[in-house]
From TrEMBL:
PANTHER family: 4-CARBOXYMUCONOLACTONE DECARBOXYLASE FAMILY PROTEIN (AFU_ORTHOLOGUE AFUA_6G11590), BLL7811 PROTEIN. This is Carboxymuconolactone decarboxylase-like domain-containing protein. Residues 26-96 form the Carboxymuconolactone decarboxylase-like domain. It comes from Streptomyces bingchenggensis (strain BCW-1). It comes from the Bacteria. InterPro entries: AhpD-like, AhpD_core, CMD-like. GO terms for molecular function: peroxiredoxin activity. Pfam families: CMD. SUPFAM superfamilies: AhpD-like.
Length: 161
């Protein structure tokens, strides 16, 4: 499987990618727990079928110390016991905020209340932007057919420079 187009090899694509990464970096540097960020990005990427992003976030989460059990169960988080109530609220928001085109009515008041119970204003802002940004990243990956399998943890660490 070969990508259709290398956004980073195109001058405009690389310029936009750098700015896109800087938004992601601001979210990463927020007080939203890093484990929650990785779980949310992995779950959204699974829903959207982005092989590159599933590969990326699985490997980055594992490199950061996330357990194989939790990574393997994130797709079935509603039917597992390994996630905290706060993580469950974040995963529910991620799913509801991602499945907008599936005749979903958006984020339910119940899910929003659970998010607000567990996350302060800054963490909530980071979580909302995280769901939006990873959905955009998934779409980029799927459109240009970026395959999963070859990502190495930390690959994009110097992109902010």
């Amino acid at each position: 499987m070969e990508p259709r187009f290398d956004l980073m090899a195109n001058e405009l694509g690389a310029k936009i990618s750098k700015r896109f990464y800087n938004v992601s970096l601001a979210i990463q540097q927020s007080s939203l727990p890093q484990a929650t960020q990785e779980l949310v990005m992995l779950r959204v990427s699974q829903i959207n079928g982005c092989g590159f992003c599933v590969d990326y976030h699985t490997k980055d989460a594992a490199a950061a110390g996330e357990t194989a059990v939790r990574l393997n169960l994130v797709a079935a988080w509603r039917h597992s016991t390994v996630f905290t109530e706060a993580e469950r609220a974040a995963l529910a928001l991620a799913e509801e905020g991602t499945r907008l085109a599936d005749a979903h009515l958006g984020v339910s008041d119940q899910t929003w209340a659970q998010v607000r119970e567990h996350y302060d204003d800054d963490q909530t802002a980071a979580l909302v932007y995280l769901v939006s940004v990873i959905n955009a990243a998934n779409r980029l990956g799927v459109i240009v057919n970026n395959p999963g399998g070859a990502y190495e943890p930390g690959k994009f660490a110097d992109m902010a420079n």
